[in-house]
Amino acid sequence: MSTCIFCKIIDGSIPAEIGYEDDHLIGIADLHPIAPVHKLLIPKKHIATLNDLQTEDLPLIGQMGLVASQWAKTLGLAEAGYRLVQNCNEAAGQTVFHIHLHLLGGRSFQWPPG
Ligand code: AMP
Ligand code: ZN
Questions:
Q1: Which of 12, 22, 39, 87 lies at a 20 to 30 A Cα distance from 112?
Q2: Which atom of ligand 1 is nearest to the CA of 32?
Q3: Is the CB of 38 under 6 A from ligand 1?
Q4: pTM above 0.85, yes or no
Q5: In the predicted model, is pLDDT for residue 114 greater than 90?
């Protein structure tokens, strides 16, 4: 999608600090981190919200979970713990309408979230 920030990062037309990439996913540093470690794992396929997931996306979603857990280990977060977050639509605070998984670590997190 030509107007989507994350599609532009994926096609290289706007810069990002890339920490992970494979055929289906890209992992970048969040521009406005809310934790000492704040990464975004983004599918290369443009899917606007979790509401738009299709059955055919099942392998992609599974891969996101596995890669996020492996990346958390690589980043040294696994033992202390970390948080994975996906916001869907406005009530949850979604601001970029191309699905992404926040990988947050390096501090303690509250529960329930705000
Ligand atoms: P969400 O509010 O769940 O949609 O998360 C969107 C995230 O994208 C926010 O944490 C933003 O800081 C982050 N973000 C927005 N633009 C960029 C960008 N150009 N590069 C990296 N992260 C970005
Ligand atoms: Zn997009």
A1: 39
A2: 12
A3: no
A4: yes
A5: no
Q: Are 72 and 78 in contact (CB under 8 A)?
A: yes
Peptide bond into 112 cis (omega under 30): yes
Provide the number of structural domains found in the chain.
Answer: 1
Specify if 52 maps to a domain.
Answer: yes
Domain assignment of residue 14, given as a range: 5-105
What is the tens place of the pLDDT at every residue in 30-63?
Answer: 999 999 999 999 999 999 999 999 999 999 999 9
Whether 100 is catalytic: yes
Residue 15 belongs to domain with CATH number: 3.30.428.10
Ligand 2 centroid from CA 79, angstroms: 33
Q: Which ligand is nearest to the CA of 28?
A: 1
Q: Is 31 within the bounds of a domain?
A: yes
Cα distances from 94 to residues 13, 48, 64, 90, 102, in angstroms, run 23, 10, 18, 5, 11
